[in-house]
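Step 1: inspect the first sequence and its tokens.
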Amino acid sequence: MKKKNFADSFINTIEWLAAIFVGLVALNIFINVLLRKFFSTSIPDYYDFGRLLLGILIFWGIAATSYRGGHITVDLVWAAANRKWKRIIDVLATLVLLFVVAVQTYTLFDKVRTTFTDNIQTADLNIPTWPFSLIAWVGDVCAVLLIGVRTFRLVFKPESLHDEHFEQKAVE
């Protein structure tokens, strides 16, 4: 069995964290539905927790899918290109993704800062919402780091990528 390096362990940890956030969102919904159906009550701040956890899930999901290349892509031009151009397209597309997510991370930090300074709280329990925004921002930072690792590996070690279609790309 191949020994995992730090980058691979980091990638797997991020994927597990994204999966945990999916579970938390589902658990929040499931418990609230049961409480409303059988006990005519609900979790305090259910709606706030739901939207805040969904925001966290989105950014950690971006982190998880950005590295693997398993998200939806349109490969019409790529499929028609030769091997050299396919590699160039892959690198350029990843660099564009890195730029976009880095700008998004920068702007999301402003959201964390303003949420903290404005002391925005949940409706029922008055829990500050900035920690949720901070966790989402950390997910976005992880996305930037993973896209950076992906870019490095695309340029210098393409055989170390774990793309869904890597086997096809390596054969061609």
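Step 2: inspect the second sequence and its tokens, then contrast the two.
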Amino acid sequence: MKALILNALGRGFELNDVDIATPIGREVLVDVKASGLCHTDLLFATHNFVPTPSVLGHEVAGMVAEVGPDVVQIHVGDHVVGSLAQSCGACARCHSGRSFQCSHPEATLRRSTDAPRLSRKGIGLFQGFGLGGFAERALIHENQLAVVPKEIPFAQEEIFGPVLCVITYDSEGDAIRLANDSEYGLHAWVKGTDLQRARGVASQLRAGRVVINGMTDDPQAPWGGFKYSGVGREYGRYGIEAFLEPRAILES
């Protein structure tokens, strides 16, 4: 399968082929449908917090493809979201409602004598927070997953927080359709080496402000959203117009 791998600090993420193991014990194999790029992932990619090479991505949502023999709470076909809290479910802290302070978070991982969950050419890869959502599939302990209603759309509602949701697409038109398939439209971002093509895509996005190849701001540019992101604009000429009182004089 394909996965984004952090091979070395400061080099960003590289798309590589990796191998994923068959689930054992209480592991769940998830077909990843959406994965958020959190600022924590960017921090880990530039600072020495996790070993490399590694597969990060802790804002993950997907569909269960296979379960290990000891899984009891999750079934094939369930829609699930991942949690970065690694809890054994058996210690005193877990039983007292403080699973985020679990005494044995390592219980959600494989033992050192087991084959690694993720590997590349036979060499194991570190799996960030036991999740590794920057991949087509993820192998996760069931205690780090929560089942959600199947009618909830993956990208729009199963990922919460200021994250970038990553979804594959088949063509430029399909990418535009996916980007506009939301009840909201406050801000959008387009990245590409062909500036004219990027401008063409940006002009088709239903968002109040679209930036190309990086975050920038201009106080003269209008700020506001489409759809449920609001009505009206702030900043520049458009923001001043909201405070004006135009007069109409009509003659017959």
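Step 3: confirm your contrast with the notes below.
The first helix runs from residue 39 to 46. Residues 63 and 79 are 5 Å apart (CA to CA).
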